[in-house]
Design brief:
disordered N terminus; 2 domains; Rossmann fold; alpha/beta; 3-stranded parallel sheet
């Protein structure tokens, strides 16, 4: 039987520079990224509490929609994803992957996806909308537990670089690594003025608030 991807330990690659070594954690080997590690126990727990369908509003480039799709299949629950179209007005490759196991409703942007998913969730019984980036207390608890186990495989390090979309991953790492310097790279999924980004800016860490390219810009 093929090993399930969400159960695999982390993979790493070592990059050597003149001044230091950089260890790259390759959770891109997981189809749904790091959040996939905690998504299944999260859905299963809420399923036990009576939730039958999960709803999510996603930016077109988000990996959480893929994690939800994979996990909802494993947990044997329904999932509906309101996903924004890409900058060309097309369904993104990420959303196409998520459509394998989830119902997809395309929206013009993330704001419309949030609005329509709110309305959808309110119109259904035993249905839960998962916040952007899986920013739910129960999910974060499962993610902390999983990340602590994976960090045991890495060893000692002084600094960690993290992508920041919704901020869920960064906040989780901040809680489990209070003495490490965290460099947060804002990939501009949400606006800089958003309360989630403003909260992270207040940390005593370095936040790259604006990259030259956003996730909406294709790279040739």
């Amino acid at each position: 039987m093929k090993e399930k991807m969400f159960c695999q330990p982390i993979k790493t690659s070592l990059l050597k520079t003149k001044k230091t070594n950089i260890l790259v954690v390759r959770d891109d080997y997981l189809e749904g990224g790091t959040k996939q590690r905690a998504a299944i126990p999260f859905l299963n727990k809420l399923k036990e509490e009576g939730i039958e369908e999960f709803v999510y509003a996603s930016p077109f480039s988000g990996f959480a929609q893929i994690a939800l799709s994979i996990s909802s299949k494993e947990a044997k629950v329904s999932s509906t994803i309101f996903s924004s179209l890409d900058n060309m007005g097309l369904v993104s490759s990420y959303t196409k992957i998520a459509s394998k196991n989830s119902k997809i409703i395309s929206c013009k942007d993330l704001q419309e996806a949030e609005r329509l998913s709110d309305f959808y969730q309110k119109s259904k019984k035993n249905c839960l909308k998962i916040p952007l980036g899986f920013n739910h207390p129960l999910f974060i608890d499962f993610l902390k537990k999983e990340l602590k186990e994976q960090l045991k495989l890495i060893g000692n390090f002084n600094r960690i670089w993290l992508p920041v979309g919704s901020g869920t991953l960064a906040k989780t790492f901040k809680d489990i690594l209070p003495n490490k310097h965290i460099v947060c790279v804002n990939i501009r999924v949400i606006e800089d003025e958003d309360y989630r980004i403003r909260h992270i800016i207040k940390w005593k860490t370095h936040l790259i608030t604006r990259l030259r390219r956003s996730l909406k810009q294709p790279v040739n």
